[in-house]
Amino acid sequence: MEFHVITLFPEMFDSPFASGIIARAVTTGLVEIQTHNLREHGLGNYRQVDDEPYGGGSGMVMRPEPIAAAIDAVTGQHPGLWRVLLTPQGELFNQSAAAGLAAHHAGLLLVAGRYEGVDERVRGLVDQEISIGDYVLSGGELPPMVLIETVTRLLPGVLGNRASLEEESFSSGLLEYPHYTRPEVFRGGAVPPVLLSGDHEKIRRWRREQALERTRKRRPDLMVKAPRG
Ligand code: 4FV
Predict the structure, then answer these.
(1) How far is the CA of 163 from the centre of ligand 1 (A)?
(2) How far is the CA of 26 from the centre of ligand 1 (A)?
(3) pTM of the predicted model as reported, rounded to 2 decimal places
(4) DSSP readout, 2-63?
């Protein structure tokens, strides 16, 4: 899968993907991550990409022309990319949204914002707007990184055993059950005996019950959506 990112800080994408699952996915060719510097599409001698907001107010707004030129340049080279603007006004990102993005085999074009945000007319140049959460970052580079990490894990061949994908939080619509490993007793805290029983059906039932109880307590909002049984 191809990930293309339009950003004013392409160097920020070097280190996050230099190790771990994503690095291996890149090395094995399952994933390709390309950054495109928006500054190259800036206006005039100073390659301007932002300007003052009409109607006044603090901060600067990203101009539509450089972003439009960058999107045209990338989609011209890589037709069929699904174009996503990362913005606090977008639909809230979650595991099922990630699964939806993973289905766009032609690849994703991710637009990273900066300053106070982008000119409203940029919204018409993309297919989807996504927010990674109800908080405001100073820079828009982390959101595309979150998307790339989350989507890459869902791609065939990236994770050793895909079984863990089925079990993990949110893929079943619930929070994950508690995990334990050695030692059996730690500072007086003992591993639940059921996990030492070897009775896999009993262990499966216990984990299901724990996931339900934990979700009820911590994220009742998820219970509404969670599949029964
Ligand atoms: C953001 C979010 C986010 C807003 C102004 C970057 C910042 C600056 N993007 N989900 N939350 N972006 O806070 O996606 O342009």
Answers:
(1) 33
(2) 26
(3) 0.92
(4) EEEEEES-GGGGTGGGSSHHHHHHHHTTS-EEEEEEGGGG-BTTTTB-EEPPTT--SS-EE-
| Phi and psi at residue 227, to the nearest 5° | -65, 140
Distance from the CA of 128 to the center of ligand 1, in angstroms? 15
Burial class from Cβ neighbours inside 10 Å (0-12, 13-18, 19+) for residue 52 reads exposed
Q: Is the CB of 141 under 6 A from ligand 1?
A: no
Query: What's at 129, amino acid-wise?
Result: E
CB distance 203 to ligand 1 below 6 Å? no
* Banded pLDDT at 226 (limits 50, 70, 90): low
Nearest CA to ligand 1 atom 6: 140
